[in-house]
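Worked example 3. Consider a protein that binds flavin-adenine dinucleotide.
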Amino acid sequence: MTSWVVVGAGAAGCAVAAELASRHAGDVLVLETGPDHPPADHDHGPLVDRTERLRFERLRRRPGKPVESYEQGWGVGGSSLVNAGLLDGAPPQGIPSEPVARVGAVGRALRGATPAAVPANVVRRAGRRVTAADALLRPLLTRQSRVELRTGVRVHRVRFAGRRAIGVETIEGEFVAADHVVLCAGAIRSPAILLRSGVDTPGVGAGAQDHPTAVLTLRLSSPADPAGPIVSSLARFDDSHVVALERLPGDERHGALVTALLDVRSRGQVSLDHDGAPFVELHQFDDRTDLERLARAASKTIGWVTSGRFDAVADAVAIDDRGTSLDMIASTFSRIEQWLLERPTGHRHIAATCPDGVVTDGGVLRGYERLAIADASIFASVPPANPYALVIEQARRVAARLAVAAG
Ligand SMILES: Cc1cc2nc3c(=O)[nH]c(=O)nc-3n(C[C@H](O)[C@H](O)[C@H](O)COP(=O)(O)OP(=O)(O)OC[C@H]3O[C@@H](n4cnc5c(N)ncnc54)[C@H](O)[C@@H]3O)c2cc1C
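Given these inputs, the predicted complex is written out as structure tokens:
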């Protein structure tokens, strides 16, 4: 019987395990570095105030700027443990979704300002968060099934016989043998594992992208409902979107409008520091048109906020978390660009760190056998949309092709 090791039980890892199992492809062992967390005590995402569910990656958005603690999900479910679950359209098969039930004051004001605003469609069932593991992996973990999950196992590198993968080695030095290895450790950790493994495929780690954002923080006239949603509404226009946050995680006194550029051209890279830990340089806005297009989108959002529609909702609007007033930048376009360059921010949608050419169409690492990547790393560029659903669909496609090829 063919044996598979899937590294990482995040969005892609759960989808790969489910697809391999549905095709009776062999014994599937999923290795996850984090724990299996109990269900969240509330279901409103993003859960970036839940540190036990996070791993903080080191990332710098622009040269000379401070290194950020960039949150990614840690544990069974990966980033679906903490993400907002915001979708752009229908969810992938097997993933439940529903529109946010109660749009609050921020979302209603956005709707008043633009007809493009609609209640957010989020990954939930009856208002409760459903992780990729809940939807795709847990149902497989029965005694009869050929899928096994091990938690608390940190994969350090892939081992090879010549150019054929024969298994993985954990940080403790344990060797786990397998006929096939599928990396699903996310767009930062999968290239890091490959770099530590000494692969010579050109382009591993190069190409990193995230959706850059312009965040307007609203000091709410009345505190938001702490039991209500955080993300409530979405408006798409041109190559951008605006997300209405009714409150910030852990803070009912502030909401936000987050404008993001979706079609991103700047590219950075993941490399290893001297300890073998990954470090991301994003080079956000190195492509000047990214800056111009995000500034244009932010200027539209600023126009909505200053149109009077938000007067009853917010008694002050800031352009950072220190309360710097919107007036500082609202008057000229060049000041908006300056603001974006000085305090670069973004979603947590990192992708494309092993882009075009690093893997074959079937997800196999070029120049090697029986080693594939199936997570957000292998997008040609960060998708011009919320990526979660696309990560799951792509992982299923890769697993289906691997299963067929393995025969
Ligand atoms: C705060 C936040 C909010 C987001 N909001 C949205 C949203 O609203 N809508 C949307 O579409 N997308 C959203 N996303 C993005 C989406 O969740 C990701 O694109 C998607 O989860 C990426 O899937 P992945 O499988 O590549 O990585 P992940 O889901 O991050 O999974 C990687 C897994 O690998 C494990 N791992 C890492 N290293 C190792 C190792 N060495 N050994 C073993 N296991 C390892 C990790 O613990 C993790 O479980 C958000 C992400 C974050 C972090």
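Take a moment to read the result before moving on. Helices lie at 11-22, 105-113, 132-137, 186-196, 288-309, 327-330, 333-342, 388-406. The longest strand covers residues 212-220.
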